[in-house]
Amino acid sequence: MNILKTAAFAASMTLAAAAPSFADTLKAEGGSAAGLSALVPQLLSKYTTDNHEIRVNVDQTLTRAALKVANGSINMASIPAGAYDKMVKGKGPYKKVSEEAIAASGNVRALFSFLGGHYHPMTYADSGVESWEDIKGKRVFVGPPAGSASGQSMDMIEAITGYKAGEDYEAIKLAWGAANQAFEDGKFDLFMRTGTMGSAAIDQFGSAKQFRILSVPQEVIGTDAWAKYLQVPGRATDVMPAGTYANQVNADEDVLSSAYVMFMGVNKDMSDDVAYQLTKAMFENLDDAHSVNKGLTPLNLGNAFVSQKAKLHPGAIRYYEEAGVEVPAELRPDAS
């Protein structure tokens, strides 16, 4: 059940009467601490110490974070491309406040896109779940309440098996921190855990007993169901190579996984200079970022706009033009 109350949710959508005022201390939010949605704003905090202090709160529900960016209560956040698409349309987690969500989406601007991570459909080796079909009638953690991860998890399961949440399996929704502990305590049979490929935090789940990661069946790729699943902006298919995790019982196999794209979102009223400095700081420190986590390797100037639907901030555009990067006309704020 969606635990967000309509009134409270609508209140968070209310736009500030005056334009947000951005000081040298910036407030940022990221998602699961095991994923790149938390790491990217943390790295920006590291790279911009000469100009700004960035305070990052992680393990946040990023659909809410997008609203906070829109109303100016925080300065920036990692925003799932798919969640923003639903925000623009007033659908999914924004359905009950559709008109307000659509209006709020116009206040969001992007700095750059990045690969947010991969889905890790995890089950302990002794759980009896060895294939997707085995989750019939079982308890499955799909993501946080009202978050985009839960919707993507349920869509993925339906595309692979045809199973529907609430009919063929029990869909469990918890905050990420509570879900981590619940999985270790055996409270659900399949853990649809998001995270960076190769993350030590993922491998840690197998410190007591080994886990299995379910692969997207090869025969599903190319079906109408999978094509429909990938139609949502920000969704992709990727391979996690064999040997990625030491504690994985099927570590000798490549795992076909679903990946997701995010973007660093800011309010449209952030000053051009601040947006410029943040964008420049990220791309001038790519060597360090890539060394910190190999999941950030795809992040480069050539991939800065992957799955991007939000308009770019003028300050970010200024940096791209200085760097000789062609900015698509549809991503400019004055584009219709």
From TrEMBL:
Keywords for this protein: Signal
InterPro entries xref list: TRAP_TAXI
Signal peptide: 1-23
SUPFAM superfamilies named in the record: Periplasmic binding protein-like II
Alphabetical list of Pfam families matching this protein: NMT1_3
Name the record gives this protein: TAXI family TRAP transporter solute-binding subunit
Source organism: Cognatishimia coralii
